[in-house]
């Protein structure tokens, strides 16, 4: 029984004292873990009990020599990917990260095609000659009258 108490005390003392490098790593890990109660606040800045408990767990994991990925997996398994402020870009997360880029690329391609068609559509084929007189009898009459006046008002050649 006393051996169990001594080992528990040693484990508590070991997890409570971290080297400065380990403490900095624990703080960095804590800055990337979201408080489950607060909105978008890392556990290092939150003051509620759950955040304090999570930060204590982060320190214990760092003292145990676990990697950053293992610590994040531990908390993601316990609280879900919601707890990660920077979730991993894998699985359905890749689709969420890549969808805006794909939409932007597709929109650019559509815009390029529309602009390309518009500029190539400017060179229109020449319109066929249409006899305007067949469509507008009044215009035909005006042209005949102006042609006959031009002939009658033109100077006559002098006769020798």
TrEMBL record:
InterPro entries: C-type_cytochrome_biogenesis, CcmH/CycL/Ccl2/NrfF_N, CcmH/CycL/NrfF/Ccl2_sf. Belongs to the CcmH/CycL/Ccl2/NrfF family. It comes from Deinococcus navajonensis. The chain crosses the membrane at residues 94-115. This is Cytochrome c-type biogenesis protein. Keywords: Cytochrome c-type biogenesis, Heme, Iron, Membrane, Metal-binding, Signal, Transmembrane, Transmembrane helix. It holds the Pfam family CcmH. Residues 4-125 form the CcmH/CycL/Ccl2/NrfF N-terminal domain. It comes from the Bacteria. The lineage of its organism: Bacteria, Thermotogati, Deinococcota, Deinococci, Deinococcales. The keyword Signal applies. Possible subunit of a heme lyase. The keyword Membrane applies.
């Amino acid at each position: 029984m006393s051996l169990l108490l001594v080992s528990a005390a040693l484990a508590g003392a070991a997890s409570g004292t971290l080297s400065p490098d380990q403490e900095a790593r624990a703080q960095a890990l804590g800055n990337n873990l979201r408080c489950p109660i607060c909105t978008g606040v890392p556990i290092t800045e939150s003051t509620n009990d759950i955040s304090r408990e999570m930060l204590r767990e982060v320190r214990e994991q760092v003292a145990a020599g676990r990697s950053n990925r293992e610590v994040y997996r531990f908390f993601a398994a316990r609280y879900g990917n919601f707890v990660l402020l920077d979730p991993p870009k894998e699985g359905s997360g890749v689709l969420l990260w890549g969808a805006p880029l794909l939409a932007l690329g597709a929109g650019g391609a559509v815009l390029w095609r529309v602009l390309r068609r518009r500029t190539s559509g400017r060179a229109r084929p020449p319109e066929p000659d249409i006899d305007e007189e067949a469509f507008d009898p009044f215009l035909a009459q005006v042209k005949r009258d102006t042609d006959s006046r031009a002939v009658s008002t033109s100077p006559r050649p002098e006769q020798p």
